[in-house]
Amino acid sequence: MVDYRPIPDERDVFHEYRSYAFRPEEGVPAYDPDEHERPRATLGSRRGVYETDEADDAEPRCVCRHYWLESRVREEGHRTAGLASVATPPEYRRRGYVRQLLARSLAEYRDRDIRFCVLWPFSYRFYRRYGWDTCNRIVTHECEPSVFSFATDAVDRDAGSIRRLEADEFGSLTPAYEAHADRYSLSLEREEDWWRYRVFGGHERDPFVYAYERDGRVRGYLVYTIDGEMGDRTMAVSELASIDHEATLALLSFCHDHESQVERVRLRVPAGVPLRDLARDPDEIETVVENGPMVRIVDVAATLSALSYPDLDVSTTIAVEDPLVEWNEGVFELAVAAGQADCTRLDGRSNAAADADVRLEIGALSQLVVGFQSAEALERTGRIETAAPEARAVLSTLFPQTDVYLGDRF
């Protein structure tokens, strides 16, 4: 048996575990509260699992950090947990501590009425074993700055201006971010601390944040660092948000303006940003598509009951397999009427799973719910079974595919 609890006074141990797990090549630097407990590092809540039969001052066997967030799913905000810094020292590995940490974390999320958990995995295969799955793709374009000359030629420079912003001005970016976030499921609702310490603040150095202003208001912005040494510099853009096409062009033109300063521009954006369609020389752009973060439903009954749905009357039964928590294992009846839903687990029915309209694992259901995968796509890849075409049609209507993009790293 293990005890799962907060880590309030063992921050040096948390620092040691995390450093060894994610940056072992750098060694484990001595813990320094002034360096390692800056505001960025203190966001979220630390947790650990401990052996119950050991002294109270024993070290944890495994640790993690929870970020308490809110994300947009189906155009409404839902409480979401960001899971990060899962780390186990080598002497405690292969004993099931991570599994217990994940299960106890989900239990805490459930107690807090949290609907979704998102994470950035070190290994997709590892977290798929426990019910998480990919929720969006990350597209990275890399090219010489000259490739962005098309934007400079197209933009009206007299219509707006570019200026650098400091963290105290984060509020002026909100309209542009909201317009960007409205396009994507799982985008985060950002609070002041997130803006200050996750957007304007970096791990080792703070990024540059530049905004495009038109008619006295911010219409778009980008967040970037300059990486590398002189003669081999890259402008690495981690976020680009804009209200309209004109603002997008102005920001891409700003990248072109760095032609004398950097050799490459690396642009990390949602798949829907049409850079290759806009560029005159798309063959000069190196584009890489990668899996992004992963998502998991915390509680099937509570989450499916809380979502918004199309205005129709329909019901279906869904058999769910969950490898980690028992409350998501079984058959659920989802009844939707006038856009409102009620989802309940059916207990005590013999052969309920075999009789269900739909059968799938929790990871596939999570992808379906947030809009990353359609019912048709999941069926083509063998990740969903439907009793009849009508059952698939019901799922497609209830959970249409939509654009999903969570780009915030934590």
Structural class: alpha+beta
**Largest beta sheet, briefly?**
7 strands, mixed
CATH evolutionary superfamily of the largest domain: Gcn5-related N-acetyltransferase (GNAT)
Name of the CATH first level of the largest domain: Alpha Beta
CATH topology of the largest domain: Aminopeptidase
CATH architecture field of the largest domain? 3-Layer(aba) Sandwich
Principal-axes shape call: globular
- Radius of gyration, rounded? 23 Å
Instruction: Give the rounded overall mean pLDDT.
Output: 92
Secondary structure tally: strands: 19
Percent helix among the residues?
25-40%
Cα distance, first to last residue?
30 Å
| Main β-sheet, spatial strand arrangement | 1-2-3-4-5-14-6
Share of β-strand residues: 25-35%
Number of helices: 15
Question: Runs with pLDDT <50, length 5+?
Answer: none
GO molecular function, one term: aminoglycoside N-acetyltransferase activity
InterPro entries: Acetyltransf_17, Acetyltransferase_Eis, Acyl_CoA_acyltransferase, Eis_dom, GNAT_dom, SCP2_sterol-bd_dom_sf
Pfam families: Acetyltransf_17 (PF17668), Acetyltransf_9 (PF13527), SCP2_2 (PF13530)
GO biological process, one term: aminoglycoside antibiotic catabolic process
